[in-house]
Amino acid sequence: MIIGAMTSPTTLNGALRLSDWGLIRAQGADAATFLHGQLTQDVTALPLDQTRLGGYCSAKGRLLASFQFWKTDAQTVLLACSADLLAPTLKRLSMFVLRAQCKLSDASAELAVWGLAGAEAMAWLGADAPARPGAVTRRGEAFVVRLADAEGQPRCLLVQPAGAEAPALPALAADAWRWLEVRSGVVRIVAATVEQFVPQMVNLELVGGVSFQKGCYPGQEIVARSQYRGTLKRRAQLLDGDAALAPGQEVFHSADPGQPAGLVALAAPRPDGGGSSALVELKLSALDGGTLHLGSADGPLLQRAALPYAIPAEAA
Fold this sequence. Notes:
By secondary structure, the chain is an alpha+beta fold. The protein has helices at 31-36, 83-94, 119-125, 174-183, 220-228; strands at 2-3, 14-17, 21-27, 51-57, 63-73, 76-82, 103-106, 111-117, 136-139, 142-146, 155-161, 234-241, 250-253, 262-269, 276-283, 292-294, 301-305.
C-alpha cells in the first residue's frame, strides 16, 4: 500500500540558513570543461540561467557526492553539496585538475546558502523568483536557484554574500526543509552514504542528474551498463514510519530476514509529528508482497509513499 502526505502547507513556508550545505567554486577558463569530465551531467552546455543536478562517482560507478550546480559567469561554476562531504570532495577533485586552468575552492565562508520554501517565499522574491524548477535568477549579488517542488511547495536556494541581511521571511524549521527535500524524491549524498549507490539506484537519472550523451567521466562505463544492459535491480522509494530514520540505516524485508533489502539515503522527521519520511534505496524484489522494517525483519514497520515522479515500468 502507498500512503500520501499528511502535513499542512502552512508549516512549509519561510527561510532557513542551510548549515548542512556547502559550496565549491570552480573558476577559470577550463572550469566547465574540467567538471564536464568529472560529473555525470553536462556542464559545458549549461546556460547561465539554468541549474542542473550531477553526481561525482568513483571508478566503480559509486556516488562520492552529488551536486546542484550552476554557472555564475562564463568561467565560474558554483556547486552546492552536503557540507560533510565538501572537504574530501574538494581534495579529490583537486587531484585531477593537473594543467587545466581551473581553481577549486571552498566558498562556504564567503557565501551563505538559504533554503526558501512556499508561496510566501516566492512572493518575497517577486520578479526575482525563478519561473520553474531548474531556473536560476540574479537578485543583486545573490543567486536564486529553483529546486524541484515538493508536496506542492516551490523551493529555492538563495545564495548570497555571507554578510547580507537574512531574508525577510518567517523562520522555516530545519526538519520542515529536510522533509521537503526527502519528499522531492531527489537524493543528496551525505557522509553516511558515500560509495553506496550507483546513480540509478537513487533515481538520479530520473530527476535529470545523468547525461547519457556526454563524454567519459569516472565510473561512466558502469553507469551506462546499468542503464542499457538491464542490470539495475534497486531503486529509491519513499517510505514513512513511526520510528526515527537516518541516512545509512538498513531496511529489511519480512521474507528475507538474513540480509538487508535496502539502505536509507536521506531522512527527516515529519513536520506534523507523525514519525519520519525517508528516501530508501531498495531491492526491486522487496516491493512484491511482505513488509518492510527498519533495522531488522522484526523492527519498526515502514510503509511506501508516492514518489513525485514515475519509475519506469520495467524497474517498478
